[in-house]
Each structure stands twice: as structure tokens, then as C-alpha cells.
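Continued from yesterday's entry.
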Amino acid sequence: MEGETVGTFSGAWVRSALSDEDRDSFEAQFAFALAGVRLSYEIEPLAEVVREWWTHAGGDRDAADADRYRSQRDATITRRPQLPQQDPTRWVDRTGPAVFAALTPDDRVRFELDFTGAADFAAQSYDHLRLVEVVHDWWTPACRNANPEHQQIDLEMIRRIESGDESLFADD
């Protein structure tokens, strides 16, 4: 679809733009990939089904390629070279399995509920973007949990601000 921007395309548009025969094939591939998503939390295979059918249905290939690039970049955060002066933060890849693994047990339960709801919505609407949003929404808590020392630094800063310590705001 000409003029679409990265991240705005979904299987719902793809499904509506396909012929009946192609729609049946798309629905079968989408359902198969979604079954894998439910087991693994890995949404990339489902997103790839939507990207491939998006271009088949006449959608802008550049939008699909840009979304694929963004997704691959997010999925490889921990494999990027780090500069020596960088803070040794333990990064969490922005993928369902990595986010789930980095969460606390209580947060995993809530993540699973959110993820299941998004998967149920995807099964009805052929729109996988809520699954992407769930992973992105839970990424920050996962990173926070993977880096408890940073959380302690933040809590200490909050405590100092709440106690009226204005030295945090002083120019050096």
C-alpha cells in the first residue's frame, strides 16, 4: 500500500487486500506461525509472514524491509560491539524469549497474560502489532530487572531528591 510507514502495516490489511485463494494461504501461514508464537514468545516468524504477504498484496516493499531491519536490529542488542567507556549494562534483546527470561517470576505471569491476550487478538484480527507492543512494553522492566545495581542507583537518587538534597542539580 503506497504511503504506508514503518510499523503501521498489519495482517488485517493484507488479508483484506488478497484474493480468496491467496487469503486462504495467508490465513493458514498466519495461523501456523501464531501457534509457534504462543509456544515460544518469538514473534519474528509471524511478522515475516505478514511482511511477505504485505508485498504480495501490493504493499510498499520499503516499509516491509525497514520493519525487518528494525526487528533484526532490536533482536541483536546484546551482540553489538560495546565501546570500552560504556557502562557495562546487561542488555536484554528486544525479543519475546529474551524479555520473558529477564523478568521476575511475578512479571512473567503478567507478561504471559498480556502476550496471550495479544495472541488471541491476532488470531481474530490477523494483526500481529499488539504482540510487538507487548514485547516492547515489557522490555524496560526486563532491562531493569537484569540490572539491579542501576535500579539501586535510581532509588538512591529518588531518595535524595525527596529529602531535599539539591546538590544533584548543581552545575559542576
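--- second protein ---
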Amino acid sequence: MFDRLTGTQQAPPWWLVGIAAAVALAAVAHGPTWRLARNVVTIAHEGGHALVALLTGRKLDGIKLHSDTSGVTVSRGKPHGPGMVFTAMAGYVTPPLLGLLFAALLAGGRITLMLWFSLLLLAGMLVMIRNAYGALSVIITGAVVFAVSWFGGSTVQAVFGYLAAWFLLLAGTRPVVELQRMRTRRMAPSSDADQLAHLTGVPGLFWVTVFALVALLSLVAGGALLFPDAATTHV
């Protein structure tokens, strides 16, 4: 197992990488599929809040994930200052940045490491979940990743890893669009962007733009990592 974690694995053919990207795009674009797949984005979103809260010295009380794909992370500490700002910023930028990290690992052939790193993150998050639906969501997600990493062959693992990376990269922008749509309709007065506006005095639209730029730049950089390496290896 140590050799598999520290070693490299061969990337799938470039056309399988393309199929994984197409499937991920379909999951983001298709409404009914997105409503289910968005739970994965919510796990990453709330996990980002939780991780940054801990890194900035805040005390994490717990995380709740809801069936409508919303979530909440509760931490204690100063109600203002850099720690609170970075914690509020982390949610929307975490899914695309996590996708970019996965893309970098996959580009380096670290497929098994990427899968087990995902399991480590999910296990750490499960400890802080404070409701049944949230626990079930994390357990099911972790079970799927574990089954692929333990029982799947090298090609199955590779395709799954590329699919996960593409999904997080492509899924980074849709929640931001949904956020701004809700803000325009005054349906999200306590959104992350509006909390940041309150904390910093900078308009919420600025923070929505920051979220969108991070998502788009991550997608461009992640796509550049995923496609050329696979194509070069197998041409």
C-alpha cells in the first residue's frame, strides 16, 4: 500500500480523459443530475470553511449538510478580523481549488494518492458532522471512493479520479452563478459574499467576482494539467 501511495500510476488514454470531462460537464449542466451531484460540492464547500477556520485558530463547533444541498459550518472566535474573513471566503473557492489540486496529482501520476487523500479529507470531516443527513452524505461519498480505490482496477481508478477532478473544476462556477441570482432576488441576505461585505466593507458583488475568477482560473489551469499529459503519454 505504501508503494502504491508513493508511486505513480499510468494515466488513462486521452479519449477516456475527454469522456470523463464530458460526463462531468453533463452532470453539472443537467438539472436533475446536478441536484444530486451538488451534494459533493456542498461537502467540499463546508469542508473548506471548516479547514480554514481551524487553520486560522477558530474553534470548530460542527458542520451540518442538508438535503436541499445547503450547509452550515459553525465556528467560534472573533466575529471580525482576518480569521473570520478567510473562513467566509473559503467556501466557494474550495471546490475548484480542490479540483485543481486533484488535477496536479493526476498529472503527476499520483492517482492512488489522490483517492486516499480524498478519503482522509472525508474522514476528518465526518468527525465534525452534526446531523444524520450530513453523516450519511459523507459516508456514502467515502464508501464510493474507498470501493474504487480498493476494489477497482487501475483503469477504473484512473477514470474515476479524472472524473472527480473534472467535476470539481467544472462545478466551481455554477454555485457562484446561483449565488448571484439569489442575491439579485434578495433571497440570500446572509450569503458568504454578504457576510464578507459586512466584515470588510467591500461590496458583495466584488466577492462574487472573486469566487467566479478563482473558479474560472482553476478550470483553465486544471484543464491544461489534465489534457496535455494524458495526450502526450498515449499518442
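Residues 48 and 91 are 5 Å apart (CA to CA). The radius of gyration is 18 Å. Will compare against the first tomorrow.
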